[in-house]
């Protein structure tokens, strides 16, 4: 059963909150994990926020207080990949980044020198979501990739939710650059197994010791499948059990909401 597992991975948007609205029962569920000393990690594809900004948003929207070390973003997954590709750190290598201040700060801390143009030999291109992007930014990244720079994408989400509807996400930017440069990026966020493996590494747990809880079949559940982690779909966001089909993520368990999840916990 799902509750004989040691640790829990959880999505945020659509699972713990929807935009600026809390999801009923999520606060109590996370507090129960904390009270029972269950290892857990909140795993998000959002590369716009630092750990502190994620924690502040959780507190403001859902009145949930979590330690910063219980947050794992696609920026963390990016750094996990970079540590494998560059074991000695950035070593001053020239990097071009389209992304948030949080991404850029972590890349600098890793040891890369962030550059603004093609005047230097760019060795790394990192693409995340930047809502102030220009054509020059896209062209510079594309040309650098064509010239041999290693190409990383924080997360493949083509859509990004806004108050008025969906707008282009990091995945849309990465897809555009990749198609023009004819080069696929290393994808770090869900549904890549990389973000799951990175979170497991922080928890010091194996895949078979954990459950992934999420609302999205194509990101949360598929990421769990790719990493061979038990997957639980909670019907509080994007998908329901009626959406499960061949080619989508395949949940091992489906619950309607946190009330049903808590009932299963008590019965297990």
TrEMBL record:
Alphabetized SUPFAM superfamilies for the sequence: HAD-like (SSF56784)
Gene Ontology CC, one term: cytoplasm
Gene3D superfamilies: HAD superfamily/HAD-like (3.40.50.1000)
InterPro entries according to UniProt: HAD-like_sf (IPR036412), HAD-SF_hydro_IIA (IPR006357), HAD_sf (IPR023214)
One annotated GO molecular function: phosphatase activity
NCBIfam families tied to this protein: HAD-SF-IIA
Protein name: Haloacid dehalogenase
Native organism: Aerococcus christensenii
